[in-house]
Amino acid sequence: MWLILLGALCLLSSTLAMPLEAGGMGKQHWELVQNYLKRYYFHDSKTRVKINFEDKLKEMQKFFGLPVTGILSSHVTEIMQKPRCGVPDVLEYSLFPGRPKWTSNVITYRVVSYTRDLPQSIVDQLLAKAFNIWSSEIPLHFKRVHWGKADIMISFARRDHGDSFPFDGPGKTLAHAFAPGDGIGGDAHFDEDEDWTDGSSSGMNFLYTATHELGHSLGLSHSSDPNSIMYPTYEDRDSKNFRLSQDDIKGIQELYGNVDNLYHFK
Ligand SMILES: [Zn+2]
Ligand SMILES: [Zn+2]
């Protein structure tokens, strides 16, 4: 009997108490906040320890450059409702152990499946452009292959798609990618339930999203600099003058060196 009761208490302690600050917030809304913090700010979802909601909220506020109060504001909940990348905002997350990077300077990629929102030739062009945006700053070359296993396998998929990170329908999580490594390492997945666009109509801009995801495929985690392409939420950007920020360039060159330094691999 005690054992059963203890088990029940452990379960209770792993859920979040609704704090006073949430007063006036509906239960459903509060669940959204909890899920957001658990998903993007919890270092190990497998350990059953009490989550300190206030600390997680402070981490999130710090990441987004907001006043670190530990109290929910409308600005915080507004950010939580924005479409974003599915990779968490904590460096210690298991997708990026030990800052992995590619060790060869020729990286292959393959487009395994396409979206129905754009012609295949446009997807190919935008991906080539996204790879070029990165390769113009680092001594890496990207080579497209049409069959077999490539370092970076690119696909569009909906809901459950064979990894442990199912997509969630339109909005919220748009895409995710895995840090460099064998197997699924480097692969980039895009949620087919989004409305992808080349910028000529409304929807999610595929070039921006692909450039962000390929940043993960190369070994970059999220940046808290709002001008960075590695910022976790989806932002409307100027599509004509779209380029990497200084922060992105600094990050990627820390891993691979710069283009003038072809033979210098750290
Ligand atoms: Zn991301
Ligand atoms: Zn996936």
Q: Which key features would you list for this structure?
A:
alpha/beta; single chain; 266 residues; 5-stranded mixed sheet; metalloendopeptidase activity; globular; two-stranded parallel sheet; binds zinc ion; Collagenase (Catalytic Domain); Muramoyl-pentapeptide Carboxypeptidase, domain 1
Q: Can you lay out the helices and strands and say which pair or pack?
A:
Blueprint: H1 2-13, H2 27-41, H3 53-63, H4 74-80, E1 106-111, H5 120-135, E2 141-144, E3 152-157, E4 175-177, E5 188-191, E6 196-197, E7 204-205, H6 206-218, H7 246-256
Parallel strand pairs: 1-2, 1-3, 3-5, 6-7
Antiparallel strand pairs: 4-5
One zinc ion is lined by residues 161, 163, 165, 176, 189.
Binding site for Ca(2+) 1: 117, 194
Binding site for Ca(2+) 3: 168-169, 191, 194
Pfam families: Peptidase_M10 (PF00413), PG_binding_1 (PF01471)
Unreliable spans are: 1-17
Q: What's the multimeric state?
A: single chain
| CATH topology assignment of the largest domain | Collagenase (Catalytic Domain)
Text of the CATH class of the largest domain: Alpha Beta
Write structural notes for this entry.
This protein is α/β, with parallel strands linked by helices and about 270 residues long. It has two domains: about 1-80, Muramoyl-pentapeptide Carboxypeptidase, domain 1 (Orthogonal Bundle), CATH 1.10.101; about 105-260, Collagenase (Catalytic Domain) (3-Layer(aba) Sandwich), CATH 3.40.390. Helices cover about 30% and strands about 10% of the residues. It is built from seven helices and seven strands, in the order H-H-H-H-E-H-E-E-E-E-E-E-H-H. It has helices at about 1-15, 25-40, 55-65, 75-80, 120-135, 205-220, 245-255, and strands spanning about 105-110, 140-145, 150-155, 175, 190, 195, 205. Helix 2 (about 25-40) packs across helix 3 (about 55-65) and helix 5 crosses helix 6. It is globular. Residues about 1-15 have low confidence and may be disordered. The structure holds zinc ion (2 copies). The site of one zinc ion has 5 residues, from loops.
